[in-house]
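Structure request: Amino acid permease, Brevibacterium aurantiacum.
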Amino acid sequence: MSETFDQPRQNVNIRKSETITFWQGVSIIVGANIGAGILSLPYGAKNGGFFALLVALLVAGFLTTASMLYVAEIALRTKEPLQLSGLAEKYLGQAGSWLIFAGVVINGLGALIAYTSGSGNVLADLLGIPVTVGSFLFFIPGLVVVWFGLKATGRSEQGLSIAMIALILFLCAWTFIGPGIHLEHLTYVHPFFIIPIVNLAVFSFIAQYTVPELARGLAETNPQGLPRAVIVGMGITGFLLAIVPLAALGMLGPDSITEVVTIGWGQSLGQVAYVLSNVFALLAMMTSFWAIALTLMTNIFDRFKWPAENANGYRIAALALVAIPPFLVGVFHLTGFVAALGYAGGFAGAIMSVVPVLMLHRARRFGDQEPAWTAGWIAHPLIQALLIIVFGLAFIYSLLNAVGLIPDGWA
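Returned structure:
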């Protein structure tokens, strides 16, 4: 084991330093999380009810935040600006690196497939264009920002996240003050359905892969701001993931919720609200696209030791690997919108819960430096065990769902 931890990694691609601000870091986390998940949660929660959704959000939100804070401490203990796959290779060897890389790829591609399908449908409906053209128009600004790297992504995320949150709050206020919500749409509870809702909530919160990139951006100016950015970003995420289903499900009821919530929600509020709700959907998918595509691309650089600077050929190849598969799968409708999210959340959640726990133990023994911050009580063995158990069950659910062995109504 000594050679894994004591010898320097060969041919590591050390990328140039790019600084971001605390709020840009928060925006990247919110942008990564507030995407396809928030658009599908009301539909995914309709059978269990709003209170079942709240339980699922509390469980998934707390545990994913804990896992992200483990990654934050690991990154702060490491001198090199490595991504998750690089950190896993450093502390767990090749097997751990390939596992975490698989988790990043499955989660990232699952989300990007959903954005291809969702953005195409939204733009087709708004502009009267073919779905394929809508998806293509969405991908252009998405890929351009990712091409320019972390600083461009942080600035873009901050601007669009502010606009996105303003639109969410405006539409929710319009719903509460205008048509109002019906208590009978919110007070029913079917605990049996908490299991599939947790699986979807895991996807909506899972942003561990963004933490090493934030660590790189905050390392020089504000390393202690990293855990605060995680907590603030995840807190904002949880609030938004709760308030949208509260408004949409409360107004429409379970029988009228559409798979992409903004379609039915906006139509019920009127034409102006319909346009605004779908603009929000596009902003949500775009902010999440930027964060996920950037971290997926940088993990490809890390995993395959590709140069990220002054090597446009490798950068184009990495961007093509990120963009082309989900575009083709989404355009040809090879998987459903919510199905893509559920599978991604289960498979990736299991990997990205267990592996960071193992990495944290190894980093505390073999890390390069004393960190500016440590996880403290959040790294208690009981919390680590709970994280592994809950996300492991989500993984089992995804396996059973994939082969059609789950109970009726859970799919």
